[in-house]
Amino acid sequence: MVASECAPVAAAGGLGQVVFGLSRELELRGHAVEIILPKYDCLRYDQVFGLTVAYEDLRVPWHGGSVPCTVWFGFVHGRKCFFIEPHSPDNFFGRGHHWQTAAVPVLLYEIYRDLGMGDQRVCYTIHNFAHQGIGGEHLLWETGLTRPAHFFDDDRLRDNFNHGAINLMKGGIVYSNFITTVSPEHAREATGTDQGMGLGHTLHIHRGKFGGVLNGIDYEVWNPEIDILIPANYTAGTAGRKYANKDALRDRLLLRKEYKPVIAYVGRVDRQKGVHLIEHALFYALAQGAQFVLLGSCPEPDVNARFWQLKHYLNDNPDCHLELGFDEGLAHLIYAGADLLVMPSLFEPCGLSQLIALKYGTVPIVRAIGGLADTVFDRDYSARHPDDRNGYVFHQVDNQALESAMARAIGLWFSYPGDFRRLMLNGMRQDHSWAWPGQHYVNIYDHIRSN
Fold it and tell me: 259-285: per-residue pLDDT in tens?
């Protein structure tokens, strides 16, 4: 695995959890897995065991010369990880996280295949089509790809819209043996809608080696049966114990204890996540007699300012709490203590919050996009068997669409508690572990190894 993140040592989002969870599942299936990561200045060194120098003088081509790098090795909760530390005034990894793996298949097939790596194959997984690595000819020279005319070709790295630029993600698609994204629905969206962010044509050309594999979640971490970060463990058979966590959540956040549902939002608060709908969900929940809890960071300055304003405005409201930042223990308590989770994303390649919520018996309310459409099936309108329905779904990006789903969910909670409990249990009994995705990836690896 060559990745920019791996939880818990270096993780800015769901990518880190995916790299760790998939790697462990592959090891459980008998495969040897090694993870290659940047040695960021912000690594969680307390999460690395036995960090030692594995190789002292790795030379990486750069600007016609090379950058000397030290390769470190350590175990991250049992995973074998190599950390690349460049020694350069350019300070490559002395900052926060960013993409950097799209060029790997290009470099492999254009340079390293002729240096003894002819047997290697690449499966390139794209988590977000918005971050493509678009730049000028200098990117080629910097990385040792010294034939600009060769790479500035529509069938290689030339950007589909700016013909004076190269696109590293496009290169990753062209040169990889297989490309995945993180849900079947997002694969369809990327090929046939604007969700491909300009790469739809390239994906269509290479559709024979492109597909969606739904992410899993790590049930060693996210599992109410064994979760050490919640006060009361529970299963589908003892789901009534969930409400001890609801009491604990209310105690921690100073919410009043009345007969009303707790609706939660957990995750980044930004435009991708439907920030205007998150705000509307908050006030709609309060207007309908529910409580609302939010936990998340706001990376965009204007959104951050708005939600701090909301936090101060609602500070004394006994039915609402906004926690701006991230607290892992509180996240676990919210999943365990809330009744409903809202995810009104504008786009969502996979989504992990709804998968965690399902395991914890917290009914998701989601927009039908990407992985949300692949995992949440509307109680009232899905064509699925009633035992497979597990939440509420809306389709448009306006307030009325969100309200229609929230109203049905809140109404069921108040008026038909037995039916709401059955909906909870449907979600808890579903398997969103890495077992099936892990086998799917093994099948892909076997396929590209034999072709």
Answer: 999 999 999 999 999 999 999 999 999
343-368 per-position pLDDT tens digit: 999 999 999 999 999 999 999 999 99
Q: Which domain holds residue 36?
A: 14-217+437-449
Classify residue 324 by burial, with Cβ atoms within 10 Å: 0-12, 13-18, 19+. Answer: middle
CATH of the domain at 210: 3.40.50.2000
- 421 touches 232 (CB < 8 A): no
Average pLDDT over residues 199-226: 96
pTM of the predicted model as reported, rounded to 2 decimal places: 0.94
Give me the helices (H) in 318-398, please.
328-337, 353-359, 370-375
CA 399/CA 379 separation, integer angstroms: 20
SS3 state of residue 163? coil
Element (H, E) at 79: strand 79-86
Co-location of 195 and 261 in the same domain: no
- 69 by DSSP, 3-state: which? strand
Does residue 152 form part of some domain?
Answer: yes
Q: Name the pLDDT band for 143 (thresholds 50, 70, 90).
A: confident
- Residues 86, 91, 93, 95, Cα dihedral to 10°: 160
Residues 134 and 175 grouped into a single domain: yes
| 212 beta partners | 181
Q: At residue 311, what is the residue type?
A: K
- Secondary structure percentages of the chain, helix, strand, coil, to 5: 40, 20, 40
Q: Which helix or strand (DSSP H or E) is residue 55 part of?
A: strand 49-62
Q: Is 390 left (phi over 0), alpha (psi -120 to 50) or beta?
A: alpha
Per DSSP (E only), the strands in 186-304 are 210-212, 262-266, 291-296
Cα separation of 12 and 14, whole Å?
Answer: 7
Nearest to 367 by CA among 413, 400, 334: 400
Portion of the chain with pLDDT greater than 90, in percent: 90
Among residues 173, 171, 181, 179, which one has the least CA distance to residue 135? Answer: 171
- Asked if the model's pLDDT at residue 96 lies above 70, the reply is no
